[in-house]
Protein backbone atom coordinates (compact mmCIF):
# COMPACT_ATOMS: atom_id res chain seq x y z
CA UNK A 1 0.00 0.00 0.00
CA UNK A 2 2.77 2.38 1.00
CA UNK A 3 4.63 1.58 -2.24
CA UNK A 4 1.56 2.56 -4.26
CA UNK A 5 1.27 5.82 -2.32
CA UNK A 6 4.93 6.64 -2.97
CA UNK A 7 4.58 5.85 -6.68
CA UNK A 8 1.42 7.94 -6.87
CA UNK A 9 3.18 10.83 -5.19
CA UNK A 10 6.10 10.57 -7.60
CA UNK A 11 3.78 10.54 -10.61
CA UNK A 12 1.87 13.54 -9.28
CA UNK A 13 5.10 15.39 -8.58
CA UNK A 14 6.36 14.59 -12.05
CA UNK A 15 3.14 15.89 -13.58
CA UNK A 16 3.47 19.12 -11.60
CA UNK A 17 7.06 19.57 -12.77
CA UNK A 18 6.03 18.98 -16.38
CA UNK A 19 3.10 21.38 -16.06
CA UNK A 20 5.37 24.01 -14.51
CA UNK A 21 7.86 23.52 -17.33
CA UNK A 22 5.17 23.99 -19.95
CA UNK A 23 3.93 27.09 -18.13
CA UNK A 24 7.43 28.59 -17.95
CA UNK A 25 7.99 27.85 -21.63
CA UNK A 26 4.71 29.54 -22.58
CA UNK A 27 5.55 32.58 -20.45
CA UNK A 28 9.04 32.73 -21.97
CA UNK A 29 7.57 32.73 -25.46
CA UNK A 30 5.13 35.51 -24.50
CA UNK A 31 8.02 37.63 -23.23
CA UNK A 32 10.40 36.63 -26.01
CA UNK A 33 12.87 39.33 -26.93
CA UNK A 34 12.80 40.49 -30.57
CA UNK A 35 15.42 38.66 -32.61
CA UNK A 36 15.87 37.41 -36.15
CA UNK A 37 16.67 33.94 -34.83
CA UNK A 38 13.24 33.74 -33.17
CA UNK A 39 11.45 34.12 -36.52
CA UNK A 40 10.76 30.78 -38.20
CA UNK A 41 10.35 30.53 -41.98
CA UNK A 42 7.94 28.24 -43.82
CA UNK A 43 8.33 28.12 -47.59
CA UNK A 44 4.96 27.69 -49.29
CA UNK A 45 6.13 28.48 -52.82
CA UNK A 46 9.47 29.39 -54.39
CA UNK A 47 8.57 33.07 -54.00
CA UNK A 48 6.15 33.01 -51.04
CA UNK A 49 7.04 32.47 -47.39
CA UNK A 50 5.31 32.55 -44.00
CA UNK A 51 7.34 34.04 -41.14
CA UNK A 52 6.16 32.98 -37.68
CA UNK A 53 7.05 34.34 -34.25
CA UNK A 54 6.99 37.80 -32.72
CA UNK A 55 3.27 38.29 -33.27
CA UNK A 56 0.88 37.39 -36.06
CA UNK A 57 1.98 35.43 -39.09
CA UNK A 58 3.77 37.47 -41.77
CA UNK A 59 3.49 36.56 -45.46
CA UNK A 60 6.36 37.53 -47.76
CA UNK A 61 5.68 37.56 -51.52
CA UNK A 62 8.79 38.03 -53.66
CA UNK A 63 7.94 39.72 -56.97
CA UNK A 64 9.97 40.66 -60.04
CA UNK A 65 11.16 44.01 -58.72
CA UNK A 66 10.36 43.98 -55.04
CA UNK A 67 8.54 42.39 -52.12
CA UNK A 68 5.02 42.62 -50.72
CA UNK A 69 4.73 41.93 -46.98
CA UNK A 70 1.47 41.10 -45.23
CA UNK A 71 1.51 42.11 -41.52
CA UNK A 72 4.58 43.15 -39.53
CA UNK A 73 4.30 41.76 -35.98
CA UNK A 74 4.60 43.26 -32.49
CA UNK A 75 6.42 46.44 -31.41
CA UNK A 76 10.18 45.93 -31.68
CA UNK A 77 9.93 43.10 -34.21
CA UNK A 78 10.09 45.21 -37.37
CA UNK A 79 13.88 45.25 -37.68
CA UNK A 80 14.31 41.50 -37.01
CA UNK A 81 11.61 40.92 -39.61
CA UNK A 82 13.45 43.11 -42.14
CA UNK A 83 16.68 41.21 -41.47
CA UNK A 84 14.94 37.87 -41.95
CA UNK A 85 13.40 39.03 -45.25
CA UNK A 86 16.89 40.04 -46.46
CA UNK A 87 17.98 36.44 -45.84
CA UNK A 88 15.29 35.32 -48.30
CA UNK A 89 15.81 37.91 -51.04
CA UNK A 90 17.92 40.96 -51.88
CA UNK A 91 14.90 42.70 -53.40
CA UNK A 92 13.51 45.70 -51.49
CA UNK A 93 10.20 45.71 -49.64
CA UNK A 94 7.92 47.91 -51.72
CA UNK A 95 4.49 47.28 -50.17
CA UNK A 96 3.03 46.39 -46.79
CA UNK A 97 -0.56 45.19 -46.48
CA UNK A 98 -2.00 45.14 -42.97
CA UNK A 99 -4.93 42.77 -42.53
CA UNK A 100 -6.32 44.64 -39.52
CA UNK A 101 -5.40 47.13 -36.81
CA UNK A 102 -4.03 45.04 -33.94
CA UNK A 103 -0.56 45.76 -32.64
CA UNK A 104 0.79 42.27 -33.22
CA UNK A 105 0.11 42.70 -36.95
CA UNK A 106 0.96 46.35 -37.65
CA UNK A 107 3.61 47.60 -35.22
CA UNK A 108 6.64 46.62 -37.28
CA UNK A 109 5.50 49.07 -39.98
CA UNK A 110 7.42 51.86 -38.27
CA UNK A 111 10.79 50.17 -38.91
CA UNK A 112 10.38 49.99 -42.67
CA UNK A 113 11.59 52.71 -45.03
CA UNK A 114 9.58 55.86 -45.64
CA UNK A 115 8.98 54.99 -49.29
CA UNK A 116 7.23 51.69 -48.54
CA UNK A 117 3.58 51.80 -49.62
CA UNK A 118 1.25 50.78 -46.76
CA UNK A 119 -2.21 49.60 -47.85
CA UNK A 120 -5.21 48.66 -45.70
CA UNK A 121 -8.98 48.61 -45.73
CA UNK A 122 -10.39 52.09 -45.10
CA UNK A 123 -11.78 51.11 -41.68
CA UNK A 124 -8.44 49.68 -40.62
CA UNK A 125 -6.72 52.93 -41.56
CA UNK A 126 -9.01 54.81 -39.15
CA UNK A 127 -8.54 52.15 -36.47
CA UNK A 128 -4.74 52.25 -36.79
CA UNK A 129 -4.72 56.00 -36.34
CA UNK A 130 -6.76 55.69 -33.12
CA UNK A 131 -5.22 52.42 -31.79
CA UNK A 132 -8.12 51.84 -29.41
CA UNK A 133 -8.04 49.12 -26.73
CA UNK A 134 -8.96 45.63 -27.94
CA UNK A 135 -12.17 44.14 -26.55
CA UNK A 136 -11.47 41.64 -23.73
CA UNK A 137 -7.72 42.47 -23.69
CA UNK A 138 -6.92 44.32 -20.42
CA UNK A 139 -3.68 46.02 -21.54
CA UNK A 140 -4.08 48.98 -23.91
CA UNK A 141 -2.12 48.77 -27.17
CA UNK A 142 1.09 50.70 -27.72
CA UNK A 143 0.44 53.43 -30.28
CA UNK A 144 3.69 53.07 -32.19
CA UNK A 145 2.44 55.39 -34.91
CA UNK A 146 1.96 58.28 -32.50
CA UNK A 147 5.45 57.58 -31.15
CA UNK A 148 6.88 57.78 -34.69
CA UNK A 149 5.06 60.88 -35.93
CA UNK A 150 2.57 58.89 -38.01
CA UNK A 151 5.22 56.91 -39.90
CA UNK A 152 3.90 53.47 -40.84
CA UNK A 153 0.26 54.50 -41.16
CA UNK A 154 -1.56 53.55 -44.40
CA UNK A 155 -0.92 55.63 -47.50
CA UNK A 156 -3.66 53.98 -49.57
CA UNK A 157 -6.95 52.31 -48.68
CA UNK A 158 -9.68 50.29 -50.37
CA UNK A 159 -13.37 49.73 -49.64
CA UNK A 160 -14.30 46.41 -51.27
CA UNK A 161 -11.52 45.34 -53.63
CA UNK A 162 -8.14 46.54 -54.87
CA UNK A 163 -5.54 45.04 -57.22
CA UNK A 164 -1.83 45.70 -56.81
CA UNK A 165 0.49 44.80 -59.71
CA UNK A 166 -0.28 42.45 -62.57
CA UNK A 167 0.63 39.10 -64.10
CA UNK A 168 2.58 36.83 -61.77
CA UNK A 169 3.11 39.76 -59.39
CA UNK A 170 -0.59 40.45 -58.93
CA UNK A 171 -2.03 40.85 -55.42
CA UNK A 172 -5.80 41.10 -54.91
CA UNK A 173 -7.25 42.67 -51.76
CA UNK A 174 -10.80 41.90 -50.63
CA UNK A 175 -13.17 42.93 -47.87
CA UNK A 176 -16.03 40.54 -47.16
CA UNK A 177 -17.57 42.14 -44.08
CA UNK A 178 -17.21 42.53 -40.33
CA UNK A 179 -15.81 39.85 -38.08
CA UNK A 180 -12.65 40.11 -36.00
CA UNK A 181 -12.79 43.89 -36.68
CA UNK A 182 -14.64 46.05 -39.21
CA UNK A 183 -11.65 46.17 -41.56
CA UNK A 184 -10.45 42.59 -42.04
CA UNK A 185 -8.60 42.36 -45.36
CA UNK A 186 -8.11 39.13 -47.31
CA UNK A 187 -4.97 39.09 -49.46
CA UNK A 188 -4.89 36.77 -52.50
CA UNK A 189 -1.79 35.92 -54.54
CA UNK A 190 -3.43 34.44 -57.68
CA UNK A 191 -0.28 33.22 -59.43
CA UNK A 192 0.67 30.97 -56.50
CA UNK A 193 -2.90 30.21 -55.30
CA UNK A 194 -2.31 31.38 -51.72
CA UNK A 195 -4.39 33.70 -49.53
CA UNK A 196 -3.51 35.50 -46.28
CA UNK A 197 -6.48 35.82 -43.94
CA UNK A 198 -5.30 37.66 -40.83
CA UNK A 199 -7.16 37.15 -37.57
CA UNK A 200 -10.68 36.87 -38.93
CA UNK A 201 -9.39 33.32 -39.50
CA UNK A 202 -6.65 33.10 -36.89
CA UNK A 203 -6.92 29.33 -36.50
CA UNK A 204 -9.40 26.68 -35.40
CA UNK A 205 -10.58 28.40 -32.23
CA UNK A 206 -13.18 30.74 -30.84
CA UNK A 207 -12.37 34.09 -32.48
CA UNK A 208 -11.42 37.26 -30.68
CA UNK A 209 -14.29 39.62 -31.45
CA UNK A 210 -13.01 43.17 -31.13
CA UNK A 211 -16.15 45.27 -30.78
CA UNK A 212 -14.05 48.35 -29.91
CA UNK A 213 -12.75 48.18 -33.49
CA UNK A 214 -16.00 47.25 -35.20
CA UNK A 215 -15.96 43.45 -34.84
CA UNK A 216 -19.14 41.38 -34.87
CA UNK A 217 -19.98 37.88 -33.73
CA UNK A 218 -23.33 38.13 -35.49
CA UNK A 219 -21.68 38.79 -38.86
CA UNK A 220 -18.36 36.91 -38.74
CA UNK A 221 -19.82 33.61 -39.93
CA UNK A 222 -21.34 35.20 -43.03
CA UNK A 223 -18.16 37.17 -43.75
CA UNK A 224 -16.12 33.98 -43.59
CA UNK A 225 -18.52 32.14 -45.88
CA UNK A 226 -18.38 35.00 -48.40
CA UNK A 227 -14.59 34.73 -48.38
CA UNK A 228 -14.82 30.99 -48.98
CA UNK A 229 -17.34 31.30 -51.81
CA UNK A 230 -15.42 34.08 -53.55
CA UNK A 231 -11.97 32.48 -53.37
CA UNK A 232 -12.36 28.70 -53.13
CA UNK A 233 -11.56 28.23 -56.84
CA UNK A 234 -8.61 30.65 -56.72
CA UNK A 235 -6.56 29.36 -53.77
CA UNK A 236 -5.20 26.07 -52.46
CA UNK A 237 -3.55 27.33 -49.27
CA UNK A 238 -4.59 29.88 -46.65
CA UNK A 239 -2.26 31.60 -44.17
CA UNK A 240 -4.25 32.20 -40.95
CA UNK A 241 -3.40 34.94 -38.52
CA UNK A 242 -1.70 32.75 -35.93
CA UNK A 243 -1.91 29.10 -36.94
CA UNK A 244 -0.46 26.65 -39.43
CA UNK A 245 -1.43 26.75 -43.09
CA UNK A 246 -5.07 25.87 -43.80
CA UNK A 247 -7.20 24.95 -46.82
CA UNK A 248 -10.42 26.36 -48.31
CA UNK A 249 -12.30 23.44 -46.72
CA UNK A 250 -10.94 24.53 -43.33
CA UNK A 251 -12.25 28.03 -44.02
CA UNK A 252 -15.70 26.71 -44.91
CA UNK A 253 -15.78 24.65 -41.72
CA UNK A 254 -14.71 27.68 -39.67
CA UNK A 255 -17.55 29.72 -41.16
CA UNK A 256 -19.98 26.96 -40.16
CA UNK A 257 -18.48 26.83 -36.67
CA UNK A 258 -19.07 30.55 -36.14
CA UNK A 259 -22.60 30.32 -37.54
CA UNK A 260 -23.35 27.42 -35.19
CA UNK A 261 -22.00 29.38 -32.22
CA UNK A 262 -24.16 32.38 -33.14
CA UNK A 263 -27.30 30.28 -33.64
CA UNK A 264 -26.76 28.52 -30.33
CA UNK A 265 -26.70 31.84 -28.48
CA UNK A 266 -29.70 33.15 -30.43
CA UNK A 267 -31.77 30.07 -29.59
CA UNK A 268 -30.70 30.14 -25.95
CA UNK A 269 -31.67 33.80 -25.62
CA UNK A 270 -35.10 33.10 -27.16
CA UNK A 271 -35.51 30.30 -24.62
CA UNK A 272 -34.90 32.80 -21.82
CA UNK A 273 -31.47 31.57 -20.77
CA UNK A 274 -29.00 34.08 -19.33
CA UNK A 275 -25.45 34.78 -20.47
CA UNK A 276 -24.02 33.01 -17.43
CA UNK A 277 -26.17 29.94 -18.05
CA UNK A 278 -24.95 29.74 -21.66
CA UNK A 279 -21.32 30.13 -20.63
CA UNK A 280 -21.55 27.47 -17.92
CA UNK A 281 -23.13 24.85 -20.18
CA UNK A 282 -21.38 25.49 -23.51
CA UNK A 283 -19.07 22.78 -24.77
CA UNK A 284 -17.14 22.46 -28.01
CA UNK A 285 -19.39 20.48 -30.42
CA UNK A 286 -18.02 17.02 -31.14
CA UNK A 287 -18.08 17.63 -34.90
CA UNK A 288 -15.40 20.32 -34.46
CA UNK A 289 -12.77 17.88 -33.29
CA UNK A 290 -9.35 19.49 -33.11
CA UNK A 291 -10.65 22.97 -32.27
CA UNK A 292 -9.02 24.55 -29.24
CA UNK A 293 -11.10 24.91 -26.09
CA UNK A 294 -11.57 28.64 -25.50
CA UNK A 295 -10.12 30.48 -22.55
CA UNK A 296 -12.93 31.26 -20.07
CA UNK A 297 -12.53 35.02 -20.55
CA UNK A 298 -12.81 34.69 -24.35
CA UNK A 299 -15.94 32.53 -24.09
CA UNK A 300 -17.54 34.91 -21.60
CA UNK A 301 -16.81 37.98 -23.73
CA UNK A 302 -18.06 36.41 -26.96
CA UNK A 303 -21.30 35.16 -25.41
CA UNK A 304 -21.96 38.51 -23.70
CA UNK A 305 -21.39 40.55 -26.84
CA UNK A 306 -23.24 38.27 -29.25
CA UNK A 307 -26.12 38.11 -26.76
CA UNK A 308 -26.42 41.89 -27.12
CA UNK A 309 -26.29 41.69 -30.93
CA UNK A 310 -28.96 39.04 -31.51
CA UNK A 311 -32.70 39.47 -31.14
Q: What does this protein look like?
A:
- The chain is an alpha/beta fold.
- The protein has a domain at 34-247: Ribonuclease Z/Hydroxyacylglutathione hydrolase-like (Metallo-beta-lactamase, Chain A), CATH 3.60.15.
- It contains nine helices and twelve strands.
- It has helices at residues 2-30, 78-88, 103-106, 122-130, 144-147, 220-231, 248-270, 275-281, 296-309; strands spanning 40-45, 48-52, 58-62, 67-70, 93-97, 117-121, 156-158, 161-164, 171-175, 185-189, 194-198, 237-240.
- The strands form two sheets. The protein has a seven-stranded mixed sheet with strand order 1-2-3-4-5-6-7.
- Helix 3 links the parallel strand 5 and strand 6.
- Helix 8 packs across helix 9.
- It is globular and about 60 Å long.
- The relative contact order is 0.10.
Features:
single chain; 311 residues; alpha/beta; Metallo-beta-lactamase, Chain A; 7-stranded mixed β-sheet; 5-stranded mixed β-sheet; 9 helices; 12 strands; globular
Short précis:
The chain is of the alpha/beta class and 311 residues long. It has nine helices and twelve strands. Helix 6 (220-231) runs antiparallel to helix 7 and helix 8 packs across helix 9.
What value does the average pLDDT take? Answer: 91
Let me know the largest β-sheet. 7 strands, mixed
The top level CATH class name of the domain at 34-247: Alpha Beta
Shape: globular
The topology string of helices and strands comes to HEEEEHEHEHHEEEEEHEHHH
Binned strand content: 15-25%
Compute the number of strand runs: 12
